[in-house]
Design a protein that fits this description.
Strand content: 15-25%
Number of strands: 5
Radius of gyration: 14 Å
CATH architecture: 3-Layer(aba) Sandwich
CATH class: Alpha Beta
Number of domains: 1
Largest sheet: 5 strands, parallel
Order of helices and strands: EHEHEHEHEH
CATH superfamily: Response regulator
Length: 148
C-alpha cells in the first residue's frame, strides 16, 4: 500500500460543471491528499498533458479521470493520443462516463483504457464510486509514478 502522507495529482477531464463540482466535493470529503486538476475539453486535456502554454508548470497526473463526451476532441481521441505517447502512456486512465454502450466499452479498452466505469447519476453512488477509485488507484495499486 502506498504511503498515506503522499499527495496525488488527479486530472479530471470533464465538461459538465455539475459533475466537476460533484467530483471535487467527493475528493474533498474523502481526504486532502488529492490535488484535483480540471480541464473541460479534449484539446485542453492534451495541452495540459503535453505541458503546453498555460499548462507548462502543471504537475504530471498520477491518474486521469476521463469523460467520453467532450467538446472539441472527444474522450476516445484523448485516450488514443495519451496511450500512443511514450511519455504519457503509463498514466492510468479511468473512463468515467454516463455511457454504458458496449461499443464505447470495447473501443476504450481497445485504446488501452485502464478501467471503464459507468458514472452514477445520484450523489451517494457517485461519492462511493469516487471513493472506490481513490482506494484502488491511489491507495492500493502501485502507480507508475511510484515505481522504482
Amino acid at each position: 500500500m502506498n504511503n498515506s502522507l503522499q499527495r496525488y495529482c488527479v486530472l479530471l477531464i470533464e465538461d459538465n460543471p455539475g459533475d466537476v463540482r460533484l467530483t471535487q466535493e467527493a475528493f474533498r470529503e474523502i481526504g486532502d491528499d488529492v490535488d484535483l486538476q480540471v480541464v473541460m475539453d479534449g484539446v485542453e486535456a492534451v495541452a495540459y498533458l503535453l505541458k503546453k502554454g498555460e499548462y507548462r508548470d502543471k504537475p504530471v497526473p498520477d491518474l486521469i479521470l476521463l469523460d467520453l463526451n467532450l467538446p472539441k476532441w472527444g474522450g476516445r481521441q484523448v485516450l488514443e493520443k495519451v496511450k500512443n505517447d511514450p511519455l504519457l502512456r503509463r498514466i492510468p486512465i479511468v473512463v468515467l462516463t454516463t455511457s454504458n454502450a458496449s461499443a464505447d466499452v470495447l473501443a476504450c479498452y481497445d485504446l488501452h483504457a485502464n478501467c471503464f466505469i459507468n458514472k452514477p447519476v445520484d450523489f451517494d453512488n457517485f461519492f462511493k464510486t469516487i471513493q472506490r477509485i481513490k482506494i484502488f488507484w491511489l491507495q492500493t495499486a502501485t502507480l507508475p509514478s511510484n515505481a522504482s
